[in-house]
């Protein structure tokens, strides 16, 4: 499953695993770079979920007040 | 029934008197019976000793005329009034002059309140055993009814209380009101009819059956078996509010909801609009806060993860390795420098030793080295011939010399 299709919870859990592996060190530079790129990507996906949720909340509030 | 005579035909019809006489004979066959009913009307005609009573079935729209001698009434039910419940020993009589039927009683007993209450108690046990009061059978009225059916007395306080309170709570509430007799002989049949009418109305999804307080006798119709069974059979949920809080006619137990008063019945039937709106607002704001908190919490969580050094400063990943490379490079350089130095020092020693072995210092002190033409060093004069050329090495240069033997 591509990172884009992950739910917020799955992306967050995966991000935590990536960070843990990065922090534990080990692995080749190539692997570390790939892990870091994946971590950044996962963090972006999480952020997009949160931004989306926030804008839906704001839209619902505007509808209510309108 | 056995046929006891010639049949009538179109050609040979029976005269009225024959038919009347035959009806009279048929009616008389019933003989003496004990009948239980409610007195709907008493007529004491002046100048006659016969009293006419209209005896009604309390549960159904059925009545009979009962006649009795005044003495019979005075003996068993001296204070008999309309609405009273009686048990009479009577037999049917056909009155040929008018073709009417009546019951002639030779004994009438008024049924006292105590006996009526005892009957209700027995009926209560019976209906209870049949499961008419079973809480599991009770249905919940809808939260917000389309239309409320109301069965109540005409223009009574109960009707006003229900309508006023229901509209105060939910201004748009719609009612279908059926006014009925709520006491007396007509009450039960009218209420059963009204229940059926409202039950058939698809828009009505809850029915309120109510009347205000009254005497024990006034409330008797609400303990009627037929009414109880009709309420039980009603597909629409029924809210009963009969009399005062302390009254408990049987229909209260059968109804899906037992309300204490007409006002209480209105509260059970419709929700309070203002209260619902307030709760909705509270729920909505809690909902919004909950989601906002959730998002904020997750944002903090995500920020925390992103601020961890591995994500916030990915350069570290490269820097660490660059330091390792620089360190190795430094070590390599130091190692090489060391070895070069050592090699330089060794070379110096060798040079010093070389220099120490050199003849230059001896030459400096004034010695000379004489070499023959082949390069060999001359040590013995006999090794050269007269006139032979020699090479002389001095401290500051060479010169050539010729041999001249002496002697």
How do you describe this structure in short?
Chain A is built from 2 helices and no strands. Chain A has helices at 8-23, 29-65. In chain A, helix 1 packs antiparallel against helix 2 (29-65).
Notes on the protein architecture:
Chain A has helices spanning 8-23, 29-65. Chain A has two helices and no strands. Chain A is rod-shaped. Chain A has a single domain (3-65), classed as Helix Hairpins, CATH 1.10.287. Chain B has helices at residues 16-28, 70-76, 113-130, 157-169, 187-200, 225-233, 250-254, 262-269, 273-307, 309-312, 315-357, 360-364, and strands at 33-44, 50-56, 63-69, 85-95, 100-110, 147-152, 175-179, 204-211, 238-242, 257-258, 369-371, 389-394, 397-402. Chain B starts with 15 loop residues before the first helix and ends in a 5-residue tail after the last strand. The chains are: A mainly alpha (66), B alpha/beta (407).
* Number of extended strands of chain B: 13
Q: Please state how the strands of the largest beta sheet of chain B are arranged side by side.
A: 1-2-3-5-4
The top level CATH class name of the largest domain in chain B: Alpha Beta
How much of the polypeptide of chain A forms β-strand, as a percent range?
A: under 5%
SSE class of chain A = mainly alpha
Shape of chain A: rod-shaped
**If you compute it from the alpha carbons, what radius of gyration of chain B comes out, rounded to the nearest whole angstrom?**
67 Å
| Count of domains of chain A | 1
> What's the number of domains of chain B?
5
Based on the model shown, name its key terms.
heterodimer; A: 66 residues; mainly alpha; Helix Hairpins; 2 helices; rod-shaped; B: 407 residues; alpha/beta; OB fold (Dihydrolipoamide Acetyltransferase, E2P); Rossmann fold; 5 domains; five-stranded mixed β-barrel; five-stranded parallel beta sheet; 43% helix
Topology:
The complex is a heterodimer of chains A (66) and B (407).
Chain A lengths: L7 H16 L5 H37 L1
Helix pairs in contact in A: 1-2
Chain B lengths: L15 H13 L4 E12 L5 E7 L6 E7 H7 L8 E11 L4 E11 L2 H18 L16 E6 L4 H13 L5 E5 L7 H14 L3 E8 L13 H9 L4 E5 L7 H5 L2 E2 L3 H8 L3 H35 L1 H4 L2 H43 L2 H5 L4 E3 L17 E6 L2 E6 L5
Parallel strand pairs in B: 3-5, 6-7, 6-8, 8-9, 9-10
Antiparallel strand pairs in B: 1-2, 1-4, 2-3, 4-5, 11-12, 12-13
Helix pairs in contact in B: 4-8, 5-6
């Amino acid at each position: 499953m591509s990172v884009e299709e992950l739910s917020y919870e799955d992306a967050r859990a995966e991000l935590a695993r990536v960070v843990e592996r990065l922090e534990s060190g080990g692995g080749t530079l190539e692997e570390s770079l790939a892990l870091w790129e994946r971590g950044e990507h996962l963090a972006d996906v999480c952020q997009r979920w949160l931004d989306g949720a926030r804008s839906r909340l704001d839209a619902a509030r505007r509808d209510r007040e309108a | 029934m056995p046929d006891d005579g010639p049949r009538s035909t179109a050609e040979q019809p029976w005269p009225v008197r024959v038919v009347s006489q035959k009806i009279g004979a048929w009616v008389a066959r019933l003989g003496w019976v004990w009948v239980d009913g409610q007195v709907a009307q008493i007529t004491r005609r002046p100048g006659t000793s016969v009293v006419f009573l209209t005896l009604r079935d309390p549960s159904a729209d059925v009545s009979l005329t009962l006649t009795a001698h005044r003495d019979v009434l005075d003996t068993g039910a001296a204070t008999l009034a309309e609405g009273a419940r009686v048990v009479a020993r009577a037999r049917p009589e056909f009155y040929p002059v008018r073709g009417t039927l009546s019951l002639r009683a030779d004994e009438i007993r008024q049924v006292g309140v105590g006996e009526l209450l005892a009957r209700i108690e027995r009926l209560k046990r019976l209906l209870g055993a049949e499961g008419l009061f079973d809480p599991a059978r009770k249905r919940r009225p809808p939260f917000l009814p389309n239309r409320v059916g109301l069965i109540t007395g005409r223009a009574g306080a109960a009707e006003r209380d229900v309508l006023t309170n229901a509209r105060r709570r939910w201004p748009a509430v719609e009612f279908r009101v059926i006014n009925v007799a709520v006491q007396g002989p007509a009450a039960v049949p009218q209420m059963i009819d009204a229940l059926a009418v409202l039950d058939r109305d698809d828009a009505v999804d809850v029915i309120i059956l109510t009347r205000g307080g009254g005497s024990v006798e006034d409330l008797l119709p609400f303990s009627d078996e037929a009414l109880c069974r009709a309420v039980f059979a009603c597909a629409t949920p029924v809210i009963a509010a009969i009399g005062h809080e302390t009254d408990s006619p049987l229909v209260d137990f059968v109804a899906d909801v037992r309300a204490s008063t007409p006002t209480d019945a209105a509260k059970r039937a419709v929700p309070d609009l203002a209260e619902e709106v307030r709760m909705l607002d509270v729920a909505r704001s809690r909902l919004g806060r909950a989601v906002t908190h959730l998002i904020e919490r997750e944002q903090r969580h995500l920020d925390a993860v992103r601020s961890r050094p591995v994500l916030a400063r990915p350069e570290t990943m490269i820097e660490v390795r660059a330091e390792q490379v620089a360190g190795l490079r430094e070590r390599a350089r130091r190692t090489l420098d060391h070895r070069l130095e050592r090699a330089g020092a060794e070379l110096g020693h060798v040079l010093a030793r070389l220099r120490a072995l050199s003849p230059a210092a001896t030459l400096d002190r004034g010695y000379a080295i004489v070499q023959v033409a082949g390069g060999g060093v001359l040590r013995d004069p006999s090794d050269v011939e007269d006139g032979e050329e020699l090479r002389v090495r001095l401290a500051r240069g060479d010169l050539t010399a010729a041999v001249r033997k002496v002697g």
